[in-house]
Amino acid sequence: MSEDELKKKLTDEEYYVTREKGTEAPFSGKFYDHHEKGIYTCICCGNELFSSKTKYESGSGWPSFYDTVKDNNNKSYVEEHSDSSHGMKRTEVTCYKCDAHLGHVFPDGPRPTGLRYCINSASLSFKAEK
Ligand SMILES: [Zn+2]
């Protein structure tokens, strides 16, 4: 999908977060307090990113996961990049299919991974489990 098509498909906030690496205000998104069973997908391309099974309450105001969806070869459907913007050393998380910015991953999550994927609701869509 081209940037123009994405601009039409997405809301202004979804475009700002996923294509311009924006961050939504905490406690503002549709998924931080969302507890249904299913799969969180990329708002841009539908790639399956996170499972409700690994979602947990981090108190940050953003949807938080301790792991990502992986394929049969244990390859994650998200990509991680080092990010030194805003004077901080962080690890950015993007969709591996379309490069949408999703959020960041921090090493202060719960077991078993010890990771906290801190993700913007605006970058996600949701497929409920049937
Ligand atoms: Zn994507």
TrEMBL record:
Its EC number is 1.8.4.12. Pfam families: SelR. Methionine-sulfoxide reductase that specifically reduces methionine (R)-sulfoxide back to methionine. While in many cases methionine oxidation is the result of random oxidation following oxidative stress, methionine oxidation is also a post-translational modification that takes place on specific residues. GO terms for biological process: protein repair; response to oxidative stress. Residues 3-129 form the MsrB domain. It comes from Lottia gigantea (Giant owl limpet). Belongs to the MsrB Met sulfoxide reductase family. It is an enzyme of class 1 (oxidoreductase). Its cofactor is Zn(2+). It comes from the Eukaryota. One of its GO terms (cellular component) is cytoplasm. Keywords: Metal-binding, Oxidoreductase, Zinc. This is Peptide-methionine (R)-S-oxide reductase. It catalyses: L-methionyl-[protein] + [thioredoxin]-disulfide + H2O = L-methionyl-(R)-S-oxide-[protein] + [thioredoxin]-dithiol.
